[in-house]
Design a protein that fits this description.
By secondary structure, the chain is an alpha/beta fold. It is 41% helix and 17% strand. Bound molecules: pyridoxal-5'-phosphate.
């Protein structure tokens, strides 16, 4: 058994079966992704379009690719035909471009709206107020080829466990509030993507439905 298989099995054994695992394969070679695929993993996360395009042709067609990094609007057309979910939607402009590129491909693209929950300025995403404005104005009427499936967020990189709890709790609470205000009868809006290798247990404890795990599966990145 490869380390990657063992790592995946170990991870799965420790979390509820309902929590989805996105195996974050950025910077890792295709051979490693294939090992994870052969161990049953189907969802992979990448943060660069160029790298994703090279990799996806080398994996079976039932591999689901999630974009998890900042995405430039002019790159959406390169991935619109196959991307399973764009988790890092951080502007209305991007959302509109995704919608129109999805229309050209005659498909609907699943999206998560990225909420800024960390203290650091560097982590992108909407504020809660921006999300409320966006959802109450345009999104519901205007966007027909995107499926808004929930929220994504990243906690501050810190040793302070209580702070991480607090930030994930704020994401879960934002999810519930937006769900009841804007998606009460929309089953698509169901995912809270939070938790990485260092904080996924806290995230699950606070209600994560989808964890994004890189180094714990594939080993440290250079
Ligand atoms: C790299 C990355 C991850 C995975 O990080 P690990 O700490 O290796 O698990 C998760 N989410 C996003 C947005 C990332 O860029």
């Amino acid at each position: 058994m490869s380390d990657i298989t063992a790592n995946l099995n170990y991870l799965k054994a420790g979390i509820p079966a309902s929590v989805k695992i996105v195996a974050v394969s950025k910077t890792k070679p295709v051979a490693d992704i294939i090992k994870a695929y052969n161990a049953g993993q189907r969802i992979f996360g990448e943060n660069r379009v160029k790298e994703l395009l090279i990799k996806k042709d080398q994996l079976p067609a039932d591999t689901e690719w999630h974009m998890i990094g900042h995405l430039q609007s002019n790159k959406v057309k390169d991935i619109a035909s196959f991307i399973s979910m764009i988790q890092s939607v951080d502007s209305l402009k991007l959302l509109r471009v995704i919608d129109s590129e999805a229309a050209k491909c005659r498909r609907r693209i699943k999206c998560l709206l990225q909420l800024h929950i960390a203290e650091e300025e560097t982590k992108t995403g909407f504020s809660f107020q921006e999300l409320t404005n966006l959802l109450s104005s345009v999104v519901q009427r205007e966007l027909v080829n995107t499926r808004i499936c929930g929220l994504m967020g990243m906690a501050t990189f810190t040793d302070d466990q209580e702070q991480i709890h607090k930030e994930f709790r704020s994401l879960a609470s934002a999810f519930r509030s937006l769900k009841s205000d804007f998606f009460a009868d929309n089953k698509d809006f169901s995912e809270i993507s939070m938790g990485m290798s260092g904080d996924y247990e806290i995230a699950i404890n606070e209600g994560s439905t989808m964890i994004r795990i890189g180094s714990l599966i594939f080993g440290e990145r250079n």
